[in-house]
Amino acid sequence: MNGPIQFCRSILRSLKHKIETSVVQKKMSALPEPLLNDSKQLSKLTKRELVARVVELQNFIKKERSSVTLPEERAFDFSKYGKRRIAIKFAYVGYDYDGFAKQEATQNTIEQYLMSALIRTKIIQPDVNCRYSKCGRTDKGVSAFEQVVSLDARSSLIKSDSGDIAESKQAFTRVAHETEVKTLSEFKHQFQSEIGQPDWEEISNMPVDGEVDYLTILNRNTPDDMYFYAWAPVPDAFNARFHCTHRCYKYFFPKCQLNINAMNEAAKLFVGTHNFQNFCKIDRTKKQIFTRNISEARVEAVTTDSSEDSFSTCCFIVKSEGFLYHQIRYMMSVLFLVGMGTENPSVVQELLDTDAFPEKPQFNLAADVPLVLHSVGYDHIKWIYREDVLSHVISKMQNQWTRNHLKTCVVRSMLNELQKRSPSPQGMTIENSKMIDLAHRKKYVPIKNRNTVKRKRLNDDSRTSTKRSRESDKESSG
Question: How far is residue 97's CA from residue 138's CA, in Å, rounded to a whole number?
Fold first, then answer.
């Protein structure tokens, strides 16, 4: 069915191009004769005459442009289609993006490209609430293998919205308007009480064969480092954010000279329900709940480099229902310090004790690029995987792997040659890896002896006030 449709579309595009070309050619034939001089004639003109010809041509184009009318595209009639609630699962390599969520300051986000594709391909109707929700909000540079969004999408099988869907839309909108004044847990509780739990029986008999090819459409209309590979029909009350049962992140890093056993010992202390205010970025303008339950946390080797152990790859794996802003990267920073031997594994337990550390001590954030949202969990959802889509996505991903791997091989070969020429060759170090910023370290200060974020802000304010006072004294004495 898709073959004839694509063929017709290509014919229409070709006809449109021919019409536009003929219009332009017709206008060109109407150009005044003096503007059609050949190159030999133009070469004889003075600079002033050439400028006059250019101005004359610009005025002609400006005058004629307003009269050019191209065939208008026929408006898409959404009333001929129904809608269905769906979830879409996809991956992306986030190195070159400014994060997942849409932002006013930049258009270069995963969500911006996704929403533009959904609107452009008529999967959703612009300026109409599609009850969009996302499972995770990854930071700038962070990637994902299992990101999930849910939305009301155009359907070629479902004829119209039911009354239940319309009522649910009103409830969803009513709750969503209160997100700014609610904490996450309060909003989640209110959402579930207003919308209810998903009724998976309501979709048990809904058809899926012959549905709009959401995955192929999105793969064709988004950047090459975004990979859409599964979708699923979901109940009307389903929400990708609040019905997610767990999120699992992986943080990859070179082994360097780190003590992996000590890091793993420290990682295990994160498991359980704790207050993580000392392991996140705090926004004091909002009410926040810092309690999170970590169900799994460990550090393990992933690959082994036979020629140089410091180049082996390790991974921090952490699993929870949800995470705070920058939480995993702050956790990783402390694990790096433990691996370097500058902190004991017990520092994790000490920082989790908010009675002993009521304010977050200062320490740097670990790098963003190695972090990936690896897997997410949902009850009852049945993902639809198509062999042709998976084959296409695997092909694209293999191509990207090849490009990146060959770059690694080139740099590694150069590094090996330099090591041969060095009188004292060295392995990979955590300082050189730039996994954590240690460039300004003169003498190491244990975390528990450092200034807190609040104390630093007060000191900065005090220094600013003193500086202004001195400047004021100078002005009055002068």
Answer: 10
